[in-house]
Amino acid sequence: MQTPRIPVDLILKNLSEQQKKTKDRIKKGREVLTGELDTRIASTPYDIVYEEDRVKLKHYKPEKTSIRTPLLVTYALINRETMLDLQPARSVVETFLRMGIEVFMIDWGYPTRKDQYLTIGDHVNGYMDNIVNFIIAKTHVPKINLMGICMGGTFCVIYSALYPEKIKNLVTTVTPTNFDTDKGLLHIWMKNTGPEHLGTTYGNMPGDLMNLGFLLLNPARLMIDKYVGLFNHMDDRDFVENFIRMEKWIFDSPDVPAATFKQFINDLYKNNLLIQNRMKVDEKTINLKKITMPLLNFYGKYDHLVPPEACELLTRAVGSTDTEDICFNTGHIGIYVSSKCQKEFAPKIVSWLKARD
């Protein structure tokens, strides 16, 4: 039997070619990284039309309105609402405006130590209700459309159950409402977290600590692979600019008020009270059957933070007969930033709202 020969000459040739490509990439990458980069976030013009404590309300006005009812977007307390306007030409806000929706968006700001006692009720019955009343008065409509994202979507579900007379249509995206699942490491961790101790130690739940936890959910991809990807594309200015924009957003993480964090962990992750109609906010029981307005529910098939099992029961739990689930083949953030989802996500919301305006 003949021993196979190792093609040493071919291996050396490939190594030489790869060495030259890497050298050229590093040279061009140095020019890109040391040159001028456009890494602005949230560049779509807006006005601040309402302020209360740390909370602000952004107002985006389209050139021509095609839907009479304005849309209020509520992001999570974790990370920032700038995700919806991360970069020009790939912005959910831009698409909404181009298609004629008047958009209001809550900026929760940065909690300080004095905010540590604010509960979910303070955010929902306080800030959110004041903002909804302001928008109704400003735009002269009897109801508004409401869109919630992640934890902000949970707030919107609670709000819509408490104030159904003020909400015309409800849109939820990657919104956890069923916490009785072990799909996703986050749910396992949260069920074994002692929020009382964290609140006592830090006052508020530090955004940096939460960010570290999110990175550790998938360290190979979130802490190694993406930087390898940056090295492999460091000579591509567009790639580098988009990478930096995303990094800016990821590490812009406000703290979460301790009382809200404690209530969210205990009532939802540990006891799963919301989907069972047993959760209380300011002594009022949240009954999902009171959500009788149309409901559009988005979630991601590969979401490692809010898996489909945490989202898909909502449409069956509410009282509305006009509900729709849409599952994208993407993760938690991909719904808002991937080029494929960009073509489907915001346009679907606009067409859905138009049909119910």
TrEMBL record:
A biological process term (GO) from this entry: poly-hydroxybutyrate biosynthetic process
Keywords: Acyltransferase, PHB biosynthesis, Transferase
GO molecular function, one term: acyltransferase activity
Gene name in the database record: phaC
InterPro entries: AB_hydrolase_1, AB_hydrolase_fold, PHA/PHB_synthase, PHA_synth_III_C
NCBIfam families (UniProt xref): PHA_synth_III_C
Name of the molecule in the record: Poly(3-hydroxyalkanoate) polymerase subunit PhaC
SUPFAM superfamilies noted in UniProt: alpha/beta-Hydrolases (SSF53474)
One Pfam family recorded for the sequence: Abhydrolase_1
Biochemical pathway: Biopolymer metabolism; poly-(R)-3-hydroxybutanoate biosynthesis
Transferase recorded as keyword: yes
Domain AB hydrolase-1 positions: 92-335
Source organism of the structure: Desulforapulum autotrophicum (strain ATCC 43914 / DSM 3382 / VKM B-1955 / HRM2)
